[in-house]
Structure formats: structure tokens, C-alpha cells
Batch of 2 targets.
Target 1
Amino acid sequence: MLSEGAQLQATAGQYTYLQLWGSWCQPCLDQTPKIKALQNDFGQKLNIIGVNYKEENAEDAQSAISTNDMDWAQVQANEDLIKNLGSPGFVPCGILFDEQGQLVKYGVSPAEVRTLLSTSL
């Protein structure tokens, strides 16, 4: 389910992977199986949050979530959230934080998350 204006914060003891995406962005949707694989492989050690970005119609986002079985947390980006994330100019855009909420990498792909977590955990 897509939550509007939700506050994002790192989960203690877990890495947090934010994935900015849009229903209009085919490369974003193409990453879904890789994100699901991360979720399956890293389970309790990785908190995944989808951040729906520049969506004109919330129903389109909700449909994409259902159709693509995006069963991780989903939030609708608002101006404050995007400003805090550094106003990314592109999607898909992944952002990885460590267990203490410190930025590990901005613009990270699911494959890079897998490599980083495999060497860190």
C-alpha cells in the first residue's frame, strides 16, 4: 500500500535501501525481480522502502505495486522528502544506508546493493 507523506528513517540493526521509482518508468519496474531477490536473500538484515517519485496519478502507482507484487513498504514522495534525499534527477535511483542510518551509497542499483551487503554482513 502506498502511504502519503510518510516519514522515512533507518531501522536500527538493518541496512535500509530506498528505491525511487515511478509507474511510468519501465527501467524502474524491470528492477522489481532484483529487489524481490534482495528481500528474499537478506530478509531481516535489509529494510526496503519504495519511494514513488513524480507520479501524477496515485492510482497508477497503486496498480504498479499490485501488478508487480511490490510487497515491501511503499511511500509517496513529497517535496520535503525529495529535498531531504537530495532531489535526485533520475529514476530508478537507489539509496543505501547502513545500520546506523549513515549513507553508504547514492545511485546504487540492486546488484550493487547485493555486492555491498554480501561483503558487509
Target 2
Amino acid sequence: MRKIILFVLMYLPIVVYSTEVVFEGIPLKKIETNENSSNTSLLTKSQSSEYRVTIIKEGENYYWASRGNVQLVPIQSGFYITFLAVTGAGYVRTLTPEARNLFKQMPKEEQEKQFLYFEHLVNQMGSITYYGR
């Protein structure tokens, strides 16, 4: 029996996936909306750190690491990539890596006027959207 197990272990393909961070963003603005109201607020540094968004890639799969490792499906269109949660919980839209490199070449004053991403979360019968860089 021991020889059979050893044989199987030797010839089973071993798949090791490395984890790659494909996007990290720091939110600056939060918009909460429900059927009765909408509220926009600028985040403090502490809140920005708390609500940071992280997307990772393991093998061929993408995950919303900052939201419980929900699996994401990337959809690219032009200069944008939308990472859509398979659970329907929300999505993150950001610039492609090439577009982000162009953004980084812009003068700082211009960068500060724009956002690099937004993260949209469905929250019961409302939503929360974060905008950031």
C-alpha cells in the first residue's frame, strides 16, 4: 500500500500558484446611496487605509482580497478593466496597466484632479462607491 501511495504522489502533477497583486488602490471619496438618500464624504487617512482595495491573481483566477477573497471576472474594454464579483456583490473598475503608466507620467497637479479607480459595492437595497488612486 505504501508503494502505491508513493507512486501516485510522485507522478501526480503538482500545481503551485504564486499570488500576484494586480491592483491596489487607496480610496479618497465614499458615496453611500439608498432609496431615500445619498451621502458623499471625503475619507480620512485612517479610513482610506481601512477601505483599501486589493485584487490578486492566483493561477488564472482573480480575487477581491480586500473583500473576503470573492472571485472576480476581469472584463477589459479600451483603457479600462472591470473586475466583476461572481457573487454579484459589486465590481472594481480601473485603468489598464498601460493606462496607469500614462497616468503616472502626467503632472502631479493633473493626477490630483482624477481618480484611477472606483469600487462599487451592493449593500442591501443600496450601494457604496469608493473613488481613489
